[in-house]
What we know:
By secondary structure, the protein is mainly alpha-helical. It has helices spanning 5-12, 17-21, 24-51, 59-72, 74-101, 106-119, 131-169, 173-193, 198-221, 224-247.
Amino acid sequence: xxxxPTAVHVAGSSTDILAVANSPFLWLCALxxxxxxAVQSLVYVRAARRAAPSIGMSAxxxxxxxxxxxxxxxxxxxAVVLVxxxxxxxxxxxAVLMRIGxxxxxxxxxxxxxxxxxTMGATLGGADYTQQVFAxxxxxxxxxxxxxxxxxxxxxxxxxxxxHRLSQVNPAFMLxxxxxxxxxxxxxxxxxxxxxxGVHAMxxxxxxxxxxxxxxxxxxxxxxxxxxWALGIAIFVGLTVAFVNHTV
Length: 248
């Protein structure tokens, strides 16, 4: 039997977001996303193991690189977890898991959800944030994240061909350009935080000082394990400094 229009209207106008945000369908979608990520990770690990002998990389060096990547991901993951906790009340657990599990930017996608909510005359997380508004905001977030993935799919082959041509002109280009791109990306993120407040500036400077000091110490002591933990330690110290200064 079809649901009466009035019932649909009442259900869609409810502000009980978690009643629909934690629906079984969204949980299945979230589990599907993480299943795809697990399969991709296995494919990349197998590809790395097959390619290692051709570049003279031993199994020990390969395992050490896997360990370094795993340890280095701990620090950034803490920031992701904090963002996820902040978004749970707005979007529910499945939606947040889908968003942090895919490539994208929490800030950009939250902005997309905010714009989508405003087009319906509502405020994201406000008293007029109904189930209908949540549905529209979630679709906007999904489209935003999907465009990140589509852009990666389309432009990666193009960039790969460009990188191959540059390496033929001068192999040093492909050593400098990726490092410069990473340095520029992280520097741009850090610089935007500096003017926000004294706490932001102190957090950025403290994290940078800790990271630089640990890398220098690792070189002096010939301790590769310290390089692996440097990023996580720097982020943890930065979060601690931000928390202490914010509560004082």
